Every structure is written in C-alpha cells, then in structure tokens.
Amino acid sequence: MAERIDRLLALGADGRHPAGAVVGLRSAAGTEVRAGGWAALPTASTDGVPMTPTTWLDWASVTKVAVTTVLVLRLVDRGDLALADPATRYLPGFAVPGADRVRVADLLTHTAGLPPWWPLYAETTDRDGALARAQALPLQAAPGTAHRYSDLGPLLAGLVVERVTGLGLAAALHDLVTEPLGLALRFGPVAPDLAATTADSDVVEQTMVATGRPYPVPPDAGSFTGWRDGPVRGEVHDGNTAHALGGVAGHAGAFGPVADLLTLGTALCDGALVRPELLDIAARPTPAAPDQALGFRRSVRSGPGGRPVTWLWHGGFPGAFWAVEPRSGTVVAGGATRLHGTVGPLATGAHPADPLHGVATGDEIAGVVLDAATTAPTAEGALP
C-alpha cells in the first residue's frame, strides 16, 4: 500500500504531481489505509496540513454510486421503486420529447439520451430552478439506444429518490444508509479542517465555460461571476452542485473518510444494504455498453493466479475512486488530489490555457488504486 501512495504522488508531469493521496483496502486479509503528501499544501504564510488516513475526501462523481445508486437499490429492495419505472412517474416536469421512454435505470446507466453536462449555474443559481432546467434540456439520443456518460442522469435519479422518499437527498442518505451503518459520510459543506483541499480554484470549469470545450454552453454563460479564486476545501468542487444545488446532488457532493467507503462497500457486498440477488442484477452489463452497469462501471481484470475478476467501480473528477468486488467482498477506496497544487488560480484573458495540461488523469489514478486491490484475495471467476 505504501508503494501505491508513492506511485500516486509521482503521477503527472514534473511540478504538477498530486498534492496528496490516500488509499484504503479491505479484503479477507484485513483492512489497511495509507496516506501521504498534503491535505493542504504549505504556503508562504501557512503551514501545510499532511494527508492522513482519516482525512475526508470530496468524493465527487463517486457520489453517483455511493449515494444515488445505493439509495435507488435500497428503494427497489423495499418495493418503493422499480428500475423499469418510467422516470416521468416521479418527475412530471421531465416532459421533453422522448422523456416518456426514459426508465429510472436509464438515468443510472447513462443511456437516457441526456447531454453529458450543462452549466446550470450559468442560467440560475436557484436550486429548484436548476433542477427544472435539467429536466428541460432536450435529449440527444433515443432513450436506451446509446451510452454517453452524463452528470444529468444521476442528478435526476437523485431527484427521483427525493420524490419517492419525501426527503431531501441528504436526509435520505442519512436515514437509509449512513445512520444504519454508523458512517460519517454526508453531503457538504464540511469543516475545512476535516477535508483535503480538492482544487486550487474553479479554473477548470471557468475554462470549460469560456471555451465551450469539451461541451457547448449557453450563449451568455460567460456572464457568470460566482467563480471561486482560492483553494476549494470542505466545499464540493463540482460547479453545478456548489453554485446551483446547495451542495447536494445525485451526481456529486458527498464527503467522508476512506474508511466509510470501505464499510459501505462491505455492506453492499454482504447483503446488509440490499439483497445479494439485487446487486447481481445491478452489476449486469448494459446492452449499449458492456463496461457499464447500474451506476457502476465494470472492469474485468486478472486477479491472483491470473483468474478473471469483475470489479464494479467509479471515479471522481478531482481524483477520487471506489471499487468493490462483489464475490469476495473486497473493497478499495481513495485517490489523489490531482487538482491541488497543479491547476492554479482563475484564468485571465479571453482564451485561457488548458489548466489540466500535464496533470495526472483520472484513469491513471484509477489504475494505481485498482492495482492495489488486484493482489488481494478474491473469489474464483468473473461476474457474468
């Protein structure tokens, strides 16, 4: 595990390595959490804060599975919801052409036909208004026919959870998951001294809005003035969640220590949260994308002895990662803060440079973290 931390801290170009890293592994051999680097880098006027095994992370898009997918499965297990239900049963405001053919499952398998991303905050910073706008965006493909990763599907799935439970998403997470398991995992903001610094500023989304790359943006998006020009610590990095959704969304916003994701993964695998047969259903590949399951991505890798092992996993844009191997109950969680000490302050000028140039990629981080788990004891054979 210590070697994995060293590898994470060495990712990226010279001078653009992640500030800190923390990784935890739970398997039949036991539990280990290691950390290295900085939760907050030293500055000219402040001492640095070391990353520790108990430092909280902004789990970013891991929220899509650790919160939203888990909550949907809990509601299905209770009989309050069915994956095949039309999403419009719970979202009457979702009325764009084709929306009537979108199932709840499609929102989590990224096959609803929704756009990949839209800066809702550029049009409104009112939560209800932003959720309404998300439901009004035209579909870009016929539901169920194509896979295109989208923040908006899990965002709407989180709204489905709210409508079914009659609770806010944060309260649903508490009542159905974290309180029964005794977890601290929660939506932010959280006290900054608990958490690692997620990014140096909002420069990544500022650049996306300024350039319209990699996704188109509203014509007047450049008029948004709410950018954060300092370290983002204890607040969710994701722009829509931070600026328009009050820190709580189905696609981002969860904070907590690595140990909580290990416990959550164990509970998911051993049937403490949902019936094992339901997890088996959720783990099946989506017809439109064999490496996509319900919320989770699927990765078949060689385990000890070279036998194939199926991992269900998800990453988070700032460098977080969570994976479970259902047959053995092996869980790995953690990551590296790739946007701290690397992307800098807000950009100036009409054509900002790419702030991610030379920065470690999410795939590189995922590879190192998942490699830490592939040497752990696992069950024979991959999932079907």
Explain how this protein is built.
- This protein has 384 residues and is of the alpha+beta class.
- Helices cover 29% and strands 16% of the residues.
- The chain is built from 11 helices and 12 strands.
- It has helices at 2-9, 63-78, 104-109, 127-136, 152-165, 169-181, 203-211, 239-243, 258-269, 276-282, 362-374; strands at 20-27, 30-40, 49-50, 56-58, 186-187, 197-199, 232-233, 254-257, 297-302, 308-315, 320-325, 330-336.
- The chain has a 7-stranded antiparallel beta sheet, with helices on both faces.
- Strand 2 and strand 3 (49-50) form a beta hairpin.
- The longest helix is centred in the N-terminal third of the chain and has 16 residues, at 63-78.
- The chain is globular, with a radius of gyration of 20 Å.
- The model has no long low-confidence stretch (mean pLDDT 95).
